[in-house]
Amino acid sequence: MNPDELGARLPTLEGDGLQLRWLTGRDLPVLESIFSDRKVVRYMATEPLDTRAAAEQYLLSIREGFLAGSLYQWGIVLAGQIVGTCTLAAIDRDNRCAEIGFALGRQHWGRGLALRAVSAVIDFAFGRLNLHRLGADADPRNGASIRLLEKLGFRREGLRRECYFHLGEIQDAMLFGLLQRDWLERACNSGGKS
């Protein structure tokens, strides 16, 4: 049973012209397509999903994470199609914090979709889950993700040097944090729109 009493699956979230919904077995082909693209996973701590079996295992780990309450991953839906995912990971109820992550299929980059999806998940994290803090990390070379995090109010907090070995190279991680009070203040100052 999920510790946040969410029932058998994640709730659907609305995000300014898109939806975030529970991922199902029908989504395996698109998950495999998105996460097998080396340009999509280039700066992620996720190995490419190069086979259907890898995609099935990935979906199973999402479901197990949901049941344990440690990982909530939604599919980002635009015009009825999954175009990416948005995730709360390392959910820590004692300290009221989690890590946020996101990925979009390459053909959907640069359209503001991640900004809208991540905003909806932040609202859920600070509202429904009553978390106090969200963290994120980004490879310093990933300018698009850094700009998105900063636009959402995340603050740079440091750099973890050479902390990932991914796709044959050592990568740094720039650390970011966002507090619930900063998000809520931002929402009030923008008339309720985060």
Topology:
Elements (H helix, E strand, L loop, with lengths): L12 E2 L4 E3 L6 H8 L16 H17 L2 E8 L2 E12 L4 E8 L8 H14 L6 E6 L4 H9 L3 E12 L2 E11 H10 L5
Parallel strand pairs: 5-6
Antiparallel strand pairs: 1-2, 2-3, 3-4, 4-5, 6-8, 7-8
Helix pairs in contact: 1-2
Structure at a glance:
The chain has 194 residues and is of the alpha+beta class.
Account of the protein in words:
By secondary structure, this protein is α+β, with helices and mostly antiparallel strands. About 30% of the residues lie in helices and about 30% in strands. The chain contains five helices and eight strands. A hairpin with a 2-residue loop joins strand 3 and strand 4. The longest helix has 17 residues, at about 50-70.
Key terms:
194 residues; Aminopeptidase; 32% strand; 5 helices; alpha+beta; 30% helix
At the third CATH level, what is the topology name? Aminopeptidase
What is the CA–CA distance across the termini? Answer: 31 Å
Low-confidence stretches: none
Share of helix, binned: 25-40%
Strand order of the largest sheet: 1-2-3-4-5-6-8-7
Largest sheet, described in full? 8 strands, mixed
Total DSSP helices: 5
Strand content: 25-35%
Reading the helices and strands in chain order gives EEHHEEEHEHEEH
CATH superfamily, by name, is Gcn5-related N-acetyltransferase (GNAT)
The SS-based structural class is alpha+beta
Q: Total strand count, please?
A: 8
